[in-house]
């Protein structure tokens, strides 16, 4: 009996989290009420407050543990394994793999990533775990790729961190603006143009 009660509760709990993710992603944190979340989850508002004292606590529980436990490690492991640890003949080939791999990832995880992006700028407590994850895991592997192609003479001798920043902001910016703005545009073509744009800017050019 106890087990069944627990199961029922965890099912309700899951529904609350799913409803919160959907509603926060759709309307933003500030415009969402716990009452709306409760309606969407099919539970009484009081049920939410049995799990979370405040709306902010509910948001923190979504963005921190959920992203940290499920999305972030998946992001880091799959990104390292599928992209950063691969072998490439050129930085352009690497960029193509990076761009299409992350596009698929963002498509699959868009609602929670949208919440993360909306809220991470405003809540300092969200920021540290992700910055540490980036600094400890992604940055060293990404740096190896950049240095490798700098040594081959394919990339300008800029600081690797600068090349990484330009690469991430261009690829991520192209993907996210397409998701938020004009989804009718031929996205593959836009991604290819972003790759060409990066290569034009990062290649050493003729001496």
From TrEMBL:
It comes from the Bacteria. GO terms for molecular function: DNA binding. Keywords: DNA-binding, Repressor. Coiled coil: none annotated. The keyword DNA-binding applies. InterPro entries: Homeodomain-like_sf, HTH-type_Tx_Regulator, HTH_TetR, Tet_transcr_reg_TetR-rel_C_sf. Residues 10-70 form the HTH tetR-type domain. Residues 33-52 bind DNA. This is TetR family transcriptional regulator. It comes from Sutcliffiella horikoshii. The lineage of its organism: Bacteria, Bacillati, Bacillota, Bacilli, Bacillales.
